[in-house]
Amino acid sequence: MSSNKATSRSLFLQSSPNRSAVSAMCRETEVIDDIRTQHTKASKLEDPHLDATVVQSTCQALHATGSCPICMYFMSEPYILECGHTACATCLRRVFERLVLKRLGTLRFESQSHDYHDQGECQVVPKTDEELVDLIGCVEAHGMNPADIFIYECPICRNESRRPPVVNVGLTDVLMDLLRSYKGQYIPEYSRELKLGDSAFQGLFLTQGVCEASGLKFRDM
Ligand SMILES: [Zn+2]
Ligand SMILES: [Zn+2]
Ligand SMILES: [Zn+2]
């Protein structure tokens, strides 16, 4: 990754050790505070009234465009679902994990099927595709079709999807532009090759790779 890309990315996602830190960073209040601090440092505007107006309108634009419909905070990683709704990667993952756990819960009391695996093994949300492949084996041992477990509703419109959400590149660009134009920093073109969090939904979807590894028939989504 070039340092330019790193700079561009760092506006949204400064390198952080864990997802909860990322989530905390996406609060719009912090973004706004950051903008204000940066602006105070770098401001070339001399009219304090104009200065305040610029801050206010930029903050309003950021808030209107970049708020997550689930947590209402500023989105650091906007992901779009098949239905067209966009939300934070962290929020979506949390919603999907809860759904999967609820469905897996129906397997909990089928004691005989646990003969093929440890009782707790079929009650854990997979964090990687490898863990998902193992879980698929458990689900099949219970006589259930994995395709009925790993399917997700949009938390906004309830539309069902078997395809993982993808980075909302358009919105990311708009938000980057807003931040960039306001901060008055020169930041080179934002790269579309740069994917924020490739593994955001790992372990939750029956992708082609997961189906191949687990011997499931891949239904082209
Ligand atoms: Zn959110
Ligand atoms: Zn089981
Ligand atoms: Zn939707």
UniProtKB/TrEMBL annotation:
Coiled-coil region(s): none
Family matches, as SUPFAM superfamilies: RING/U-box
InterPro entries assigned: Znf-RING_euk, Znf_RING, Znf_RING/FYVE/PHD
GO MF term list: zinc ion binding
Name of the protein: RING-type domain-containing protein
Organism expressing this protein natively: Ephemerocybe angulata
Domain RING-type: 68-157
Gene3D superfamilies xref list: Zinc/RING finger domain, C3HC4 (zinc finger)
Keywords: Metal-binding, Zinc, Zinc-finger
